[in-house]
Amino acid sequence: MAVEVCCVCGKPVTGAAKMLGGRAFCDEHYAQVGHNRKGMWTAILALIVGLAAFVAAVFFLAPDNVLTGPALVAVGLLLALVPAVIWLVVFYLQDRAEPEPKQYLSGVFILGLLLAAAVGQPLIQNVFQVNEWASGSLGLRLLAGITIVGAIQEFLKYAAVRYSIYNSPEFDERIDGIIYGAAAGLGYATYLNVDYVLSNGGVDLGVGAVRVAVVALAQASFAGVTGYFLGRAKFENRGPFWLPAGLLLAAVLNGVVTTLLSEITRTGLRPTPLNGLILAAAVAAATFAILFAIMRRNSRPTPAAAGGAVQ
Amino acid sequence: MTATTMPTGRRYFRAEEPEWLVWVTVAVLLAIGLITRAVVLNRTTTFTEGNLSVSYPADWTPVASDSPGALLSVGESFSGELFPARLVVQQMPVTEISRSAQSLGDLALKWADDHAQDRLGYRVLSIEPTQVRGRDAVRIDYAYVAEPAFATPDTMPIVARGADTLIRTGDTVTAVTTLSSADTFDTLGTAWNRMLGSVELE
User: Fold this and answer.
1) Nearest CA distance, B80 vs chain A (angstrom)
2) pTM for the full model?
3) What is the pLDDT of residues A58-109, one digit of tens each?
4) What's the pLDDT tens digit per position in A213-230?
5) Which residue in B26, B80, B152 is closest to A267 by CB distance?
6) Does the beta-carbon distance from A237 to B15 stay under 8 Å?
7) A260-285 b/e with 16+ CB inside 10 Å = b?
8) Which residues in chain B have Cβ-Cβ distances shorter than 8 Å to A267?
9) For residues B149 and B80, what is the distance between their CA atoms, to the nearest angstrom?
10) B44-201: CATH homologous superfamily?
């Protein structure tokens, strides 16, 4: 009889292997795999609420036109970092009992940022030149948003997780997919925001804060979806179309939400950036609420799994 | 992807999540995007009047022009931009621009001088000789402060950037204007070149 090998640590399992979704686990990793980290969800909630509060504070309290030149750019760059700081700080504070290694989480965040800077945005802007031809009808923007912008951005966030932490034993819970996916998404968002600040020579504080929050919430949500599919794929046999379906879903979400955001914040008789914040916060809340419900349901042991029998 | 005891072939095709399918998915999405791009960029409408013919993107629609007597004035319809990109083509006798201009360079200077009078903050960025389908021409790059297309009293003005290309055929000058907000002008470079390259003067 062949010896089962734990799908997380790769060590042979002695005795009857615990099985989940067609994969074998050692006792230690079987106990961990369905763990639903409360800190993760608290951090997401803090990100949504914290960014809303942050934007409200900046939008309504920041004095107009007091900064110019390098000071405006410097403050804009600080604004761009706020979402990542809020999320990472709250996550670490909530996750002290069994923390994810800081270097891995920061590493995936930085990887998302670097992939955006070195591959993603240059491809979208310079190779596919989306802005040049996809500014016409709503349908065209939607199609370009899904097939090019969504596909590239979501694949790079997927790659930031899949080809780094995913193969590590530290990736030992299904929820790790969402955690590291969100980190990659926030890294990507941080680059988008930094690039926006630098290319505009600084930003109006109120509008800049709204944009930073919108981009961060949206990118983290899309990547959370991809991360969920990755988290399930590592620990369960989900079939050949599971990961492509996850990527496709994230790309569609990216294209649809980004197009909607551009519709409600840039068209019409006057710019309405706060509409974008409301939509982005709603999308983030809905996305992570659905993921939370799914993860909670999946964290309950099934009779077969609880019995520890080989399936 | 992960270690199990399943036979390799079955694991690869049935039980596991083959990585190559993710790459294929991305490649298919990008291919659809590229095909869409090619279709959009190659779909044009051709305007013909007299000896003039020029092609522009098919989804552009007529827009108001501040150039009286313009033969053609079209712009982006659904860009969401406060100042959508536009193409304006005018034809006029050389004497309408200048009675004394000897060269295209002289015409360009007079042309720029005239436009400086009726545009706020008008600034010539460069005047360069060029060619349009083998014909000598001159290109005037400029910027000015413009009212957004969807302006309300509390909307900030924007910086418009444009290029007027003057092509002289006998006693007639054809002026091809490409205009957009300064933020988007450079990114539309390929589209501008395609439109200018389509200008035919029989």
Assistant:
1) 5
2) 0.70
3) 777 666 666 667 777 787 788 888 888 887 777 777 666 666 677 888 999 9
4) 888 888 988 999 999 999
5) B80
6) yes
7) bbbbbbebeeebebbbbbebbbebbb
8) 80
9) 10
10) Mog1/PsbP, alpha/beta/alpha sandwich (3.40.1000.10)
